[in-house]
Amino acid sequence: MENPTNRTALVTGASRGIGAAIALRLAADGLNVVVNYAGNQTAAQKVVDEIKAAGGHAISVKADVSDPAEVAHLFEAAQEKFGGVDVLVNNAGIMKLASIAQSDDALFDSQVAVNLKGTFNTLREAADRLRDGGAIINFSSSVVGLKLDTYGVYAGIKAAIEVMTSISAKELRGRAITVNAVAPGPTATDLFLVGKPQEVVDRMAKMAPLERLGTPADIASVVAFLTGPDGAWINGQTIRANGGIV
Ligand code: NDP
C-alpha cells in the first residue's frame, strides 16, 4: 500500500478540464489522488505523471460513474492502493444543450445517467466507505441560477444534485464528514468551449462583472478550500464560483 498515512482524494472525471485541475491541486496540497476517467486513458495518465513528477502520489482508474459496479471497483482500487478514501469529488459530467421541445430521449437519458445517477452512485458508495472526518464535493452549475434557454435538462439535473448535497450532509451526521456542492459559471474547458461559436464564448465571458471565463484552477481553489481545514465549518451548501454572473 502506497502512502497510507496521507489523506486520499477520489476525483471523478479527472483526466481533463476542471477535474484534472482539482487532481493536481489536491496532490499539491499533499493528498494521494485517484484520477478517474471514462475513456481518455492517455489524458488521465498525463495527470498522474504530472503529480508524480512533482513528488505526489496518484493512480488512474477507468470507471463509468453511471455504472454502480464500476463505481464500486473505483472505490476498491482506491482502498487497495492507498488504504481508503477521505475526499470524494463528484466532478465527472457531460452537457448537451437543446430546448426542452427539441431534447430527445438520448439527450435526457445520457445526462441523467452520467450527471445524476453518477453522482448518486458515488454518494451511495461513499456513505459506507468514506473515512470519518472526510469531505464530499458535488458539482452543480450556475445555470441553476441563470436559467438560460436550452439548459433545461442539464440545469434541472444540477438542481437535483444541490438538493441531494444538503440531504447527504444531514444523513452523514456524527461522522465529521462535510458535503457541499460547487456551482461554476462558464469555465474554459472542452465541456463549455466545444461546439460554441467564438462570438457566443466571448459574449458569455463578458456576462460576469469580472468579465472573463473561469479557469479550471479557479474552481480547483474552491474545492481545495472546501476539503481543507479552512472550509471545515461549511456543510450542506452550494458555493457558486462564477465571477458574479448570478
Ligand atoms: P470536461 O468535458 O472538460 O471533462 C469531463 C470529464 O468527465 C473528463 O475527465 C471525462 O473523462 C469525464 N467523464 C465524462 N463522462 C464520464 C463518465 N460517464 N464516467 C466517468 N468520467 C466521465 O468537463 P468540465 O471539466 O468542464 O466539467 C466538470 C464538471 O463541472 C461537470 O460536472 C460540469 O457539469 C461542471 N460544470 C462545468 C462548467 C463549465 O463551464 N466548464 C460550468 C458549470 C459546471 P474522459 O476524458 O475519459 O472522457
Explain what you see.
The chain has a single domain (8-185, 216-241), classed as Rossmann fold. It has a seven-stranded parallel β-sheet with strand order 3-2-1-4-5-6-7, with helices on both faces. Helix content is 47%, strand content 17%. It has 246 residues and is α/β, with parallel strands linked by helices. α2 (41-53) links the parallel β2 and β3. It has helices at 17-28, 41-53, 68-82, 105-129, 143-146, 152-171, 190-193, 198-207, 216-227; strands spanning 8-11, 32-37, 58-62, 85-90, 130-139, 178-184, 238-241. α1 runs parallel beside α2, α1 packs across α9 and α3 runs parallel beside α4 (105-129). It is globular. The relative contact order is 0.14. It contains nine helices and seven strands. Bound molecules: NADPH dihydro-nicotinamide-adenine-dinucleotide phosphate.
What's the name of the CATH homologous superfamily? NAD(P)-binding Rossmann-like Domain
Contiguous low-pLDDT stretches (5 residues minimum) are none
Report the top-level CATH class: Alpha Beta
Overall number of strands: 7
| Cα end-to-end separation | 45 Å
Rg over CA atoms, rounded to whole Å, is 17 Å
